[in-house]
Amino acid sequence: MSHTVLHVDASARLNGSTTRQLTAQIVEKLGGKVIHRDLADALPQIDETWVNANLTPADKRTGTQQQALALSDALIAEIKAADTLVIGVPLYNFSVPTALKAWIDQIGRAGVTFRYTETGPEGLMEGKRAILAVATGGTSVGSDIDFATQYMRHFLGFIGITDVEIVAADRQLVDAEQALSGALAQIDALAA
């Protein structure tokens, strides 16, 4: 059975990025078919046209509204096609980069990636695994000032992806060698 990996890079740095290095190594270890989505050029922010299109039933959308959601539909199709998501998460000012937040905003769609029920929200992307390659300068992953990993876990769980693992190269400005070697050891320990 073929395994498909959605490889999402979010670092603004094309060269010298720890998260790019880690996601590439994770993807190589996992093998299989790879869909690569690089967010360095930034996705458009959602706007009023997008929101109104999203709130309009699919069979009632105008051509303009369909076009407004075309990128979102393509991004969601990439997730649906994947068994595993490998997402680079560099911490910028204690949270995710705006490029990654724009991706999240594009894929968080009621009735498509999650739905509201009488018992609360239900994710529609179940049965997938996510591996987050996290890099920080001075913030410890999982600490009170790490607003990125908990946010990513919550959002992924909200859309139904609850199997989330973290590979962390944190506090690189404190001890870069230890941060990277620790992350590489975590990659070695990942189940393919």
Question: What's the quick description here?
Answer:
By secondary structure, the protein is α/β, with parallel strands linked by helices. It has helices spanning 18-30, 48-55, 63-68, 70-81, 98-107, 147-158, 176-189; strands at 4-9, 33-38, 84-90, 114-117, 120-123, 129-135, 163-169. The chain is built from seven helices and seven strands.
Please describe the structure with a list of short key phrases separated by commas or semicolons:
39% helix, 192 residues
List the helices and strands and how they pair.
Blueprint: E1 4-9, H1 18-30, E2 33-38, H2 48-55, H3 63-68, H4 70-81, E3 84-90, H5 98-107, E4 114-117, E5 120-123, E6 129-135, H6 147-158, E7 163-169, H7 176-189
For the largest sheet, list the strands in their spatial order.
2-1-3-6-7
Helix content: 25-40%
Let me know the largest β-sheet: 5 strands, parallel
Number of domains: 1
The rounded Rg comes to 17 Å
CATH architecture group name: 3-Layer(aba) Sandwich
What coarse outline follows from CA principal-axis ratios? globular
What is the structural class? alpha/beta
Mean pLDDT: 96
